[in-house]
Amino acid sequence: MNDPDTRLALLEGWLSRDLGLQVSTIEPASSDASFRRYFRVTCEERTYIVMDAPPGKEDVRPYLHVSGLLEPLGIHVPHVHEADAARGLLLLEDLGRTHYLARLAGGGDVQTLYEEALEALARIQLRGTEAARELPPYDRALLLREMALMPEWFLARHLGIELPPRERRTLEVAFEFLIAEALSQPQVLVHRDYHSRNLMVVAERNPGVLDFQDAVRGPVGYDVVSLLKDCYISWPRERVTGWVSGYRERLKAAGGPAGADAAQFLRWFDLIGVQRHLKVLGIFARLWYRDGKSGYLRDLPLTLQYVRDTCRRYAELAELSELLERRVAAELAHANERSAEHALRPS
To answer: Phi and psi (nearest 5°) for 199?
Structure first.
């Protein structure tokens, strides 16, 4: 039942026979870095999004659970009209076709878009205390498992770099430092992918928020850095730190987890960013080598640059910084060229 054509027939039958909808068109809406697919369905001049999540590969129950936590907080997640969790089918509100990345790249009002995204995030972090308790913790095991993707898929598989014991130890020490820093932060509801491809530009209660099914209880800086050090679009450091400072003031004014001072909050932001971007380096490489998705390779240079820039700013990461500059930075362009050539070859 997980064959794409069989799944599409199942989806069509669910809409027409089970839900009694008169469907006029079904078209692909998007896909993501998982086995989920999304279709835009037109029914009597109204559109919906249908999520197709093949059981055995995807489970829609976490999505439904987190949706039920975020919607009462006033966050504009897609309203769930109908759900068949056993068959992995959801009928969702259609939040349109324009995500933040497209609007920003097209010259949208940057300041307004980010102010609204940060306002929604503050609402999650300030109002979501009880909701966060219903989520799994972003604990040491998960933080380490994520960062371990970087040496396996990015260094060894993509760059062809096998680290000797001394350099592996450098990574291990850095990982333990980053884990300790992450666990020391105030813990809040963490979306885990709060960035420009998962935020939709909508007319009411902007932004629309997608892809939240992996939410956890974790560091206050995590979603802020996902948004402001986005792997798909970048902004000057001065602008980013201005947004971070304004966000901290918003939390502080509401009695939220703002830290002892601006320097501590910026440190939280920067260091959890290194953890996230090390993970993403591994994930983007894995999406190519395991899943055949080459499009994420173009986002590796920016992601690596975030790590390099932050490591240069913190003495505790000096050895990792030296390793990245000496062994890694110059190799990425060559590795991406090799992969691009391979992707263009006929299968």
So the answer is: -115, 125
